[in-house]
Amino acid sequence: MPFYAVGTNYSPTGNSLEGIQTPEYNATVGLYYVILSVLTFVYLICSIRTNICLFSALFLLVITFALTAATFFQVALGNAENAAKLQLAAGAFNFALCVPIWHIFIVQILDAVDFPITLPVGDLSTIVPGRSQKERKHQEE
Q: What are the residue boundaries of the structural domains of the chain, listed by start?
């Protein structure tokens, strides 16, 4: 949004629109998406014991953020053709991300209205044992 003038610091003339077209600006945005990828990867690891829907959504989101970061890095390097391909791939993974997210949303809405039918989300808590479960099992032996 031009109102925020985020490109002002990247422009020698102080023009925000010129600033957002510089390699430095694009590399900075790329780093932002790298950090989002790392943070989302931590969430992905933490979601291993929840359900398949959440795990797959976070998995697809990590890929989306990584591809978006790569897009901005390619723009910063001046490789517009590679950036366009990466952006297309990022968009495809982002679109695929909608499937598990909508499934989770529908499951939660049905649960919220006490609908008589429940949809499966693929519970993983029984497949991947937690630390406390492992400790309890070790103590029993």
A: 19-140
